Amino acid sequence: MLRQPVIATLGHVDHGKTSLLDAIRRTSVQAREAGAITQHIGASEVPVSVIMERCSPLLSKMKLKFELPGLLFIDTPGHEAFANLRKRGGSVADLALLVIDVNQGIQNQTVEAIEILREYKVPFIVAATKIDALSGWIPFPNTCFSETLAKQRQEVQEFLDKKVYELVGSLYGYGFSAERFDRISDFTKQVLIVPVSAKTGEGVQELLACVAGLAQKFLEKRLELHSEQAGKGSILEVREEEGLGKTLDVILYDGFIAEGDTIVFATQQEVAVSRVKALFKPKPLDEMRDPREKFKPVERVSAASGVKIACEHAEEALPGSSLYVVRGDEDLQKMKESLLGEVRKIIVESDVLGAVFKADTLGSLEAITKLLSTEKIPVRRAGIGPVSRHDVMEATSVREKDACKGVIFAFNVPVDEEASKLAEENGVKIFEEKVIYNLIETYKRWVEEEKAREKREAFIKLVPPAKIMVLPNACFRVNHPCIVGIEVLSGTIRKDIELMNEEGVIIGKIQGIQHEKKPLEEAKKGQQVAVSIEGPTFGRQVFAKQVLYSSMGKEDIKTITEKYKQAFTEDEVALIKEIKKIKGYSLF
């Protein structure tokens, strides 16, 4: 007997992986995902009966007979941050479907996917998607590719050929000989390229036939069912089920699992040893992440398969963790060590000044921690599950030292009511997102806004550098206060700053600034305004054509020089040095 082959679907974001599986299953999973983007590994089974039905016109021509029970498709995220998730999917795959938009060709994550397939030596087929978007293409829904191609205009056929051969050339650059599936001369040496449209269903028949046919013909030895081998799987999600409590959604990629089996999986702190109470299978063509119908109970499940497990300690399981069926004490110890090593690589507890990050699965945690590292955003604490009071306290301690790092990222997880209230009281910002792109972008925008706000507030407290000249014939009041016309030669003058002369003697404080009888908060280089100065008398301390400076304190100069130097012009930086010299400060 042969088991179902595991078919990993990989490719660049937005090239149509989930849409293609929707076309095969006739479902709409992609439309229901957050941001219409796949962010977790999913699994769905396509029984051989469905393949026979969908491909019957084609199979009668090709004289193919399938012995496989069906195909298990794994859908992997395409965003670059999910490299580790794709590795997890790629490493358990028997065959891969590399999805490439025929209009865009090979992109960043396509290259990454190719490297994963090369690393794990996984044979693959290229699905050249979105042929319906080719200029001049006339769709003939749900027809064979050969049939729809024959109905296209000659120039459209030639344009598709051009795009396919661009793809052939690109794949050759990565060391793979490829050809359109109907022109293949050696299936053992060439990669098949199947043009297809998820939107119209054109070419889906050939794609299914090629995947199933190649798996059966060339992977027969690998797909032999070892009915007594202990099961190995990957936990997709921990999900609440009515009447069962918490259950585990698992991809079983090797061996078998049965009711009553002892299983092990990772938790936040250690490894849980549990017993299988019940097993449930999704209906054929249903997606494990988003089933349309209830699961059905079974006593035993063989690889490769998606399975729901009711067991002890399910609520403690880490989504993304491996799951093993245990056959003896020696196996148990080895598996415990393996699982602990897996978790320690991902869960973060440190003393660095950094963000707190909570995610829904190990895969998400692994992927986004990597992305945060790439963006040079340090992480103090990273774990699975809701944002708690303890997380807020951690972020608060960081915020006291660095407000922009004392934040919490909550990816696809809830925030406890108590935690939310505490965060508000302590001024801790929580970024809640279900789409990875938004998580980092929202944070970066917020940091920019915070820094701009801090800068504005800091500037209000600091005495800015300023150099002014008293205009001739512009004394409007001699004293109490002295009101004169001035020109700002450099920098910025503001209300309430003290002015000094070229000898460093304080002559008074600016009470007000006016321009054409309208009050101003500040005046900058080039502006001519009237200022009222409390303290001096015109003709004694203040004179026409006299140059005056803002009296900057040593701490103000130090703060500007160390924190905000980039915000000042070369002219203003030179003025700060001039004021330092007048004040007699050392040039620190």
Verbal overview:
Residues about 30-40 and about 80-90 have low confidence and may be disordered. The protein has 16 helices and 29 strands. Helix 5 (about 85-90) runs parallel beside helix 6 and helix 12 (about 390-400) runs parallel beside helix 13 (about 415-425). A seven-stranded mixed β-sheet has the order 2-3-1-4-5-7-6, sandwiched between helices. The chain has a six-stranded antiparallel beta barrel with strand order 8-9-15-12-11-16. Strands 22-23-28-25-24-29 form a six-stranded antiparallel barrel. It has four domains: about 5-220, P-loop containing nucleotide triphosphate hydrolases (Rossmann fold, 3-Layer(aba) Sandwich); about 230-345, Translation factors (Elongation Factor Tu (Ef-tu), domain 3, Beta Barrel); about 350-460, Translation initiation factor IF- 2, domain 3 (Rossmann fold, 3-Layer(aba) Sandwich), CATH 3.40.50; about 465-585, Elongation Factor Tu (Ef-tu), domain 3. The termini are far apart. It is of the alpha+beta class. The chain is elongated, with a radius of gyration of 34 Å. A hairpin with a 2-residue loop joins strand 25 (about 505-515) and strand 26.
- Strand residues, percent: 25-35%
Separation, N- and C-terminal Cα atoms: 80 Å
Radius of gyration: 34 Å
Largest sheet: 7 strands, mixed
Q: What is the number of independent domains?
A: 4
CATH level-two architecture of the largest domain: 3-Layer(aba) Sandwich
Question: Which term fits the overall shape?
Answer: elongated
Helix-strand makeup class? alpha+beta
For this structure, what is the CATH class of the largest domain? Alpha Beta
DSSP summary, beta strand count: 29
Please tell me the overall pLDDT. 82
CATH topology of the largest domain: Rossmann fold
CATH superfamily of the largest domain: P-loop containing nucleotide triphosphate hydrolases
User: What order do the strands of the largest sheet run in, or round the barrel if closed?
Assistant: 2-3-1-4-5-7-6
